Amino acid sequence: PVLDMGNLVHALALQPENLEAEFSVEPEIPEGAFTTTATLREFIDAHNASLPALLSADDIKALLEEYNATLPSQMPLGASVDETYASYEQLPEEFQRIENGTKHTATAMKACIKEYNVTLPAPVKTSGSRDALLEQLAIINPDLVAQEAQKSSPLKVSGTKADL
User: Fold this and answer.
1) Which of 44, 49, 39, 43 is nearest to 155 (CA)?
2) Would 89 be classed as within a structural domain?
3) Residue 130 in contact with residue 124, Cβ under 8 Å?
């Protein structure tokens, strides 16, 4: 029915049980309810602040670079025969395959150096997105990556009210 003061007073006084059926009554908003995007955002910000911090891409990159620094460096092939010979002499015994008394050609020495270099562990990549860096970190420190995966991701704070 049309809302006028007479109908409302009549319903309130004589037929309170019909009030909700006959009239549209706004529901009470509970204390602390999210009524605006700002109140929702405030809650999300507080939640995100309470989460343990995730490793940043820079933190992960620093760990990867630290690991790469511990790896043995490859032997240079050398630009001249003398440089190549100097590198060849630094190889471990098992890679110095040219017999004494035979001519040490640059090609033969470079083949031995390349054979040695192939046995060295490859450095991990230190560029890319945070997820790509985490994949590289999983190669050298799977436990840390597992701990990182246990942490909750922060909730999004951008988008529409429905997205939040």
Assistant:
1) 44
2) yes
3) no
- Give a yes or no: residue 43 inside a domain: yes
AA identity, residue 142: P
Which are the contacts of 55, defined by CB distance < 8 A and separation ≥ 6? 134, 148
**Within a domain: residue 90?**
yes
Tell me the C-alpha to C-alpha distance, in Å, between residue 147 and each of 28, 41, 49, 67.
44, 28, 19, 19
Could you give the C-alpha distances from 69 to 8, 63, 153, in angstroms and in order?
82, 10, 31
The domain of 34 spans 5-50
pTM value is 0.62
Question: What domain count does the chain have?
Answer: 2
Q: What is the pLDDT of residues 5-51, one digit of tens each?
A: 777 787 778 887 877 777 777 778 888 888 888 888 888 888 888 98
Residue with tokens 């009030």: 19
In a domain, 63, yes or no: no
